[in-house]
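Supplementary Note 2. Why include the ligand at all?

Several targets in our set were suspected to adopt different conformations when bound, so apo predictions alone were not considered sufficient. For every target with a known small-molecule partner we therefore ran a joint prediction. The input for octanoyl-coenzyme A is given below.
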Amino acid sequence: DSVESDYETILVRREERVGVITLNRPEALNALNTTVARELVAAAEEFDRDESIGAIVITGSERAFAAGADIAEMAGISFREAHLGDFVGGWAALARLRTPRIAAVSGYALGGGCELAMMCDLIIAADTAKFGQPEINLGVIPGMGGTQRLTRAIGKAKAMDLILTGRMMGAEEAERAGLVSRVVPAAALLDEALKTAAVIASKSLPSVYAAKEAVDVAFETVLAEGLRFEKRAFYSMFALGDQKEGMAAFLEKRKPDFGND
Ligand code: CO8
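The joint prediction is reproduced in token form.
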């Protein structure tokens, strides 16, 4: 473990090939203000540029992953300021990073918190996790992908239910609905997330990037385009030393030694 930098609202460390970012505004249940946005995106971008990092874990506290955008910061914003200032626009950079991200969610993941979790590639939830898009209760709607990513993740029926009522959904329901990859006891959450991240980080980096990109295309486009993209990406893997090594290792009944090239 080593602390990488001094941030005000997040803690950043690395565990071998895994970068760990912990939201750290306990006084506001990790509400996402502009400082959190700037710091979290900067830390994640730094990990993304670092070839020795193969996966990123984003987590919060036991009580809250993040209880949403910071309502105190947002309350007074005018339409003009929102529109011209694009105050949630900076978050999009996070979703574009190549490095796989795991959200390790305990407690509340509401509004922007749920949206942040959905910007990750996998969500691992503690049995205490509560997901929701309660923006409707504040007289607004989700603004950081909630209406789009939640609908694609869990379908129209459940997305409408959650977004129109603002109710919370527990970890079990979230797993059944397909939002969450795994549910584990709260005490085991970080360990499970770190182990999963380490498994991903042990694979060939170029294959992981290609696999993630291809799944993302399925999420973002129509089937025909996705299949075309997948085939191109698949064929391109045969230019890699790691493809030769991975297949040779299988045929020789040994473990592959990937060189990430
Ligand atoms: N913003 C600012 N402060 C918050 C937030 C928040 N979203 N959530 C909690 N807090 C603060 C509380 O004000 C309180 O502060 P204080 O102790 O100074 O009064 C402290 O955190 C603890 O919270 P509570 O006392 O309310 O704790 P409870 O256990 O009683 O309740 C809840 C927990 C149910 C999570 C409750 O705090 C709550 O409902 N929070 C708001 C949830 C919400 O509405 N989130 C959606 C916000 S809108 C949004 O996310 C829009 C997204 C679009 C753009 C995203 C950009 C990032």
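The longest strand covers residues 10-15. The two ends are 27 Å apart (CA to CA). Comparable summaries for the other entries are listed in the accompanying table.
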